[in-house]
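Much of our argument rests on the idea that a fold can be written as discrete symbols. In the encoding step, the backbone of a single protein was reduced to a row of integers, each denoting a local shape. We regard such an encoding as a compact summary of how the chain folds. The record that follows shows the chain in one-letter code together with its fold in token form:
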Amino acid sequence: MRNALQKKRIHQLRKRLGQAADSKCDGIWIIQPENRRYLSGFKAEDAQLNESSGSLLIDGNHCLLVTDSRYTLDAEREAKGFEIHTLKGGLEDGLPEVWGRLGASTWGFEADYVTWGLHRQLCETLHAHAPAIRLVPVTGLVEEMREVKDTHEIRASETSARMISSVLDEVIPWLKPGLTEKEVARRIEDLAMEKGADRLAFPSIVASGPNSALPHAVPTGRKLRKGEPIILDVGVRLNGYCSDMTRTVFLGNPRAAFKDIYKTVREAQRRALEKIGVGVASDVPDAAAREFIRHAGFGDYFGHGLGHGVGLATHEGPRLAPRKPVTLKKGMIVTVEPGIYVPGKGGVRLEEMVVLEREGPRILTKNDHFYDF
């Protein structure tokens, strides 16, 4: 018997599948790793896009986990309540046979995750299959479920956020001129592993001086210098759940221009946190931060959205951005991360991870290294 939480999720998915007017599917094929884990508890991860450690096949009567011999024992141990089917060959050969056995004629597939090559191979096999089996693209069914976290997920995310906060608590006082960005990134990873993280949630961003003007900078051999901004954007994965936070620090006294930029970003973040809440459109906090930055004269230097959801993946829904707003709900976990990036000079980003509660947003990231210039 699968646990009650996953049973509830599968019931909700079946209901959503039946209500999806554009799908008309009898069942759904799940291949995306985070969706797979969310529904089954199966923890395996795919190393690359064209590799799959397993698929879920869920229709009105069946819950199957299809995998290969590398993962059979893991699947039997982790995906309680799922029938485990071990393929002898690849997905393109084995899946049509399993679909035929289940009897459903129309299967939804995750259009954002199934590669064109795999889809083409499957369709070639299914073309000759009798009775006919049809694949229909679907998007967002499980991802939208994952946007609202239950109590277990909130606790897991809070623990992950505390861990990465404690890593920065140790790293920031340790920083000194002469250390390279790569050395700092290695220290972050070492501390995360020492504290028991599954792994980093994403490669750490350590960007100093002009490199800090690159929002997704890759650590280099550049040495830290006094007075320059140093962006530390870091996260861990713990029990499957990710954390994500950013601090900008200075060694010594920064130039007046960077004090001004820092103050602007910090106030933009405060204003966004005041606007975010249950029932609020997701573009409202983004607009609050964006307008303040624009009025301060830095509008051309804030090019990304205010934030994003965090959970089993580092980046998931909802997005706090100007386009395609959604209504924010209780239990959503999002980042609030305004930034200003001046090409050739440097940048500042500050990021908190918050959970939306009835009383307002509760900040999960606990490192308190902020400046009051």
